[in-house]
């Protein structure tokens, strides 16, 4: 319970600070550059906080990220930005050979946000099912 309260307090503080820095000019990133979509764990009394949302880009038949980190036991909103014109991609999560989540295919250029149910803590594999070499790791903590 104490950890949960600490996590909510930290998330509230991050949201408050984030709302004060809303422009790309203030973000430290060049105009037109997206901010990182995977939250970097933030130390807080020996614990870390992972994201519950992220964006991953499919471009030139590969994902821009090889690892995603998410908080355990919370729903995940994952946006797939398919920048490969005329090519279908999706985003699926596997535990070994078992499909944990399978996202719908869609043809680029376009974006789709997948609503992924809460995952238990652990390490999983993600991939595009049409192009299995487009893969990476999902760390849930």
Architecture overview:
β1 and β2 form a beta hairpin. By secondary structure, the chain is mainly β. Helices cover 13% and strands 40% of the residues. The protein folds into 2 domains: 31 residues; 105 residues, Immunoglobulin-like (Sandwich). The N terminus is likely disordered. It has 1 helix and 11 strands, in the order αβββββββββββ.
- Domain module count: 2
Give me the CATH architecture of the largest domain, please.
Sandwich
Classify the beta-strand content into a percent band: 35-45%
Largest sheet: 5 strands, mixed
Q: Describe the oligomeric state of these chains in a short phrase.
A: single chain
What is the CATH class designation of the largest domain? Mainly Beta
Structural class estimated from helices and strands: mainly beta
The CATH superfamily of the largest domain appears as Cupredoxins -  blue copper proteins
Topology, number of strands? 11
